[in-house]
């Protein structure tokens, strides 16, 4: 009889994958992930049938965590700029704390090993924010761009902002504010 899977081992494998992929890229060997997790390589394949399944699962997990950070306290009744500022602030705060996950999700986002289904499910988690963007565009509050494009602008500017905040912590507040204002000017219709 097969041994039951352990949530602790699964989590250890995912944490090890983040560490290894952040250090060596997503082409790092699964043997290294297993070693960092403190398990046999075969154990990794008890939880994930192959490396692509691990990559897709990891992408979903990081996106789920990011969504919860950005949207769990989302101010639904606030005006558009306040809601956008909230999403910005939570994304930047998450990224500053989760540097390795930021590196890994950036690699996974451009990898052809992440399936279209995985991308669609991960994107669906941000549907509320995307709906807000579409409604705001319809009302003329935002420039008419596809929500995915607005999201890409947010990510690009936020990534640059986080990099500068990490390099110059004394100026972090100024970079955070300047980054949001740059994003807002890029998407707001006023």
TrEMBL record:
<protein>
    <submittedName>
        <fullName>TetR/AcrR family transcriptional regulator</fullName>
    </submittedName>
</protein>
<feature type="DNA-binding region" description="H-T-H motif">
    <location>
        <begin position="29"/>
        <end position="48"/>
    </location>
</feature>
<dbReference type="InterPro" id="IPR009057">
    <property type="entry name" value="Homeodomain-like_sf"/>
</dbReference>
<dbReference type="InterPro" id="IPR050109">
    <property type="entry name" value="HTH-type_TetR-like_transc_reg"/>
</dbReference>
<feature type="domain" description="HTH tetR-type">
    <location>
        <begin position="7"/>
        <end position="66"/>
    </location>
</feature>
<dbReference type="Pfam" id="PF00440">
    <property type="entry name" value="TetR_N"/>
</dbReference>
<keyword id="KW-0238">DNA-binding</keyword>
<dbReference type="InterPro" id="IPR001647">
    <property type="entry name" value="HTH_TetR"/>
</dbReference>
């Amino acid at each position: 009889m097969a041994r039951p899977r352990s949530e602790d081992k699964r989590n250890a494998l995912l944490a090890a994958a983040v560490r290894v992929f952040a250090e060596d890229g997503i082409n790092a060997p699964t043997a290294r992930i297993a070693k960092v997790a403190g398990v046999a390589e075969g154990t990794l394949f008890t939880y994930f049938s192959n490396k692509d399944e691990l990559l897709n699962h990891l992408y979903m997990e990081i996106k789920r965590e990011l969504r919860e950070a950005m949207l769990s306290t989302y101010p639904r009744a606030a005006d558009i700029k306040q809601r956008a500022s909230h999403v910005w602030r939570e994304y930047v705060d998450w990224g500053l704390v989760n540097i390795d996950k930021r590196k890994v999700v950036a690699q996974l986002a451009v990898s052809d090993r992440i399936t279209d289904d995985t991308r669609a499910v991960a994107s669906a988690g941000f549907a509320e924010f995307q709906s807000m963007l579409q409604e705001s565009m319809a009302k003329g509050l935002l420039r008419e761009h596809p929500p995915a494009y607005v999201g890409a602008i947010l990510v690009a500017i936020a990534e640059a902002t986080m990099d500068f905040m990490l390099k110059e912590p004394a100026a972090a507040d100024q970079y955070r504010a300047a980054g949001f204002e740059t994003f807002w000017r890029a998407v707001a219709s006023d």
